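Action item from last meeting closed. Structure (228 res):
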């Protein structure tokens, strides 16, 4: 069975009502990530950081997968599909995809500030100061903040190198190391980039650019790949 590796970014969830970061009304066009999504921000004003992620988590809690997420599940009829997402929402999971690797964490989880191995599923959108882990330390969002290591990048690179087909959906390709994953894909395999602002990525061959929203472009691409 051929393997399709899919790298997704905020754009795949945009039509589910979840804001992107660098698009028109993207989060980082309105707020400074240094104030909300960094260890320094957490040290300076943890309540503000909790509030930011509670606001985002509530939106995720109320969002639904869109046609882009759902089409990727259909691919599993014919391919071994491995999803590597930069997104912290659980819309790929809720659409029914089986193999999902979160590079930047998961907003519906919290983790101990004393032991990063202690990770907890949240059963409510609100995480508060005073919510503690089993060791009595404050819980923080289970998110990779700017300046923090990306622990899943090695397995993600390994998976990317095994792709027979590589898809990129809804990402500006400006945040590393995630953006480098396409380089780990073999040069001679077919690659597709679905994004209204998709572009030819330098140093990458066999890349077909599909300048469409995920909700339209991904189902069309999936139909093509299932017909092959
Ligand atoms: N369908 C497909 N793509 C879309 C859609 C849509 N409906 N709407 C917007 N896009 C595209 C934009 O054209 C843009 O290329 O989604 C991309 C969003 O880019 P960013 O906002 O930079 O998001 P992303 O690439 O996922 O950011 C990477 O940066 O802030 C960090 O950790 C955060 O995971 C995030 C990382």
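Sequence:
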């Amino acid at each position: 069975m051929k393997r399709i590796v899919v790298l997704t970014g905020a754009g795949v969830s945009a039509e589910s009502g979840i804001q992107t970061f660098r698009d028109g009304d993207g989060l980082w066009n309105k707020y400074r990530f240094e104030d909300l999504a960094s260890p320094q921000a957490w040290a300076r004003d943890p309540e503000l950081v909790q509030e930011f992620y509670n606001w985002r988590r509530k939106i995720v809690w109320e969002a639904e997968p869109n046609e882009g997420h759902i089409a990727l599940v259909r691919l599993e009829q014919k391919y071994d599909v491995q999803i590597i997402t930069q997104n912290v929402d659980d819309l790929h999971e809720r659409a029914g995809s089986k193999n999902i690797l979160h590079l930047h964490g998961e907003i519906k989880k919290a983790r101990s500030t004393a032991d990063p191995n202690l990770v907890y599923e949240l059963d409510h959108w609100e995480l508060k100061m005073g919510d503690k882990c089993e060791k009595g330390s404050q819980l923080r969002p289970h998110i990779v903040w700017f300046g923090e290591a990306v622990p899943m990048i090695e397995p993600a690179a390994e998976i990317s190198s095994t792709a027979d087909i590589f898809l990129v959906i809804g990402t500006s390709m400006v945040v590393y190391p995630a953006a480098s994953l396409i380089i780990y894909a073999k040069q001679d395999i077919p690659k597709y980039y679905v994004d209204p602002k998709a572009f030819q990525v330098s140093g990458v061959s066999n890349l077909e650019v599909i300048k469409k929203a995920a909700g339209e472009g991904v189902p069309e691409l999936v139909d093509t790949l299932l017909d092959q």
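Note appended to the action item: The CA atoms of residues 10 and 20 lie 5 Å apart.
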